[in-house]
Amino acid sequence: MSTTTRKAAQPAKVQAGPGTSQSPAAGPQERRGGKRSSMGVQNAAGWLFSTPFLVLFTVFMAFPILATLLMSFTDFGLRNVTHPLDVNFIGFENYANLFSDEKFLKSLFNTAYFVVIGVPLTIFLGLVVAVLLNNGIDRARTFFRVGFYAPVVTTIVAVAVVWRIVLDPSDGLIAGLFTEVGLTPPDFLGSETLAMPSMIAMAVWRNLGTVMVLFIAGLQAIPTEVREAAKLDGAGVWHEFRRITVPLLRPTLLYATVITTIGYLNVFEEPFVMTQGGPSDSTLTVSLNMYREGFNFFHMGYASAMAYVLFVVIMGITVLQLRLLKDNTK
After folding, report:
1. Do the beta carbons of residue 124 and residue 210 sit within 8 Å?
2. In angstroms, how far is CA 172 from the centroid of its own chain?
3. Structure confidence at residue 306 as a pLDDT band (50, 70, 90)
4. What is the mean pLDDT of residues 276-294?
5. What's CA 71's distance to the chain center, in Å?
């Protein structure tokens, strides 16, 4: 057999395709080694790009959270600013003192009052406005959307100034209406009975736009075929809303309820700007009380314990809401 014939009888080598780094003749170990090397590069790139976030999260989130937890078991106060090593570990004493502190219990009650009234009002009005804007008003839809959303992007100070003008008992807008009908205008922010409802009204007005936008997005995500099928079956407006709109809006309703509840449990700006917790602590919330203890009286250990009690309350209520609303969707 000639040399040319023997070369033709040998099996042809398979050429590696474009982008293939391993020769077909490479063994399984070599291919696994190349794959691990590629994954290693990808992992290194992932850690490299994540490093800025991890550094910021550690410095500004994880470390303060851990430091606050440790501080809640100490008597850290004003003197420890200059003598930090004199801090004493007192265990659960701060937590025990909280539940015998009448001011803290009152702030806890005020916060619960704010949430129990404010959250349902915000959710209900947000849903009503969203349904009206989504279905009923065509020409002025953009105007009303901007009008309801404007308070969301307005600073709390500007909102507070507007509301103080509206509620002013001497020459405010509402006082003028009372005077027109011959009644004495009430002092909304100076009354222990009316101060908290006034703040709730302001908070609902300020947060209505956020909830409205969420519900509009949810409403527009409902397939039109479902609505048309219901109409063909003879469903009225109320039946369609109750049987189709509300069930399909449950995920949006759950999200809006949870974030509104968390925001209202942390309410601070409204009482801080409007009433400073008064009159007679009738608008003192847990967050405002915590701020006073920490930065006015510099009882940092006590304020830290207060923060963690509020954290546990928020966590418990959020888990309860998720369980209740999730079970209802089954």
Report:
1. no
2. 33
3. very high
4. 92
5. 26
Two structure tokens written together for 328: 């209802």
Structure tokens, 87: 């801090």
Contacting residues for 73 by C-beta, under 8 A, at least 6 apart? 89, 90, 91, 92, 94, 301
Q: Tens of pLDDT along 104-132? A: 999 999 999 999 999 999 999 999 888 88
With CA atoms as reference, report the closest residue to 200 among 130, 282, 310, 144: 282
**Packing angle of the helix pair 250-265, 195-220 (nearest 10 deg):** 150
State which H helix or E strand residue 118 sits in: helix 102-131
121-114-67 Cα angle (round to 5): 125
C-alpha 155/C-alpha 132 separation (Å) is 27
Candidates 74, 53, 56, 76; CA nearest to 64 is: 56
Q: What is the pTM of this model?
A: 0.80
- State the DSSP string of 128-166: HHHHIIIII-STTHHHHHHHHHGGGGS-HHHHHHHHHHH
Q: What's the rounded Cα separation, in Å, for the pair 314 and 291?
A: 18
Three-class secondary structure of residue 138 per DSSP: coil
Is 4 a residue whose pLDDT tops 80? Answer: no
* 86: Cα within 13 Å, side-chain hemisphere: 7
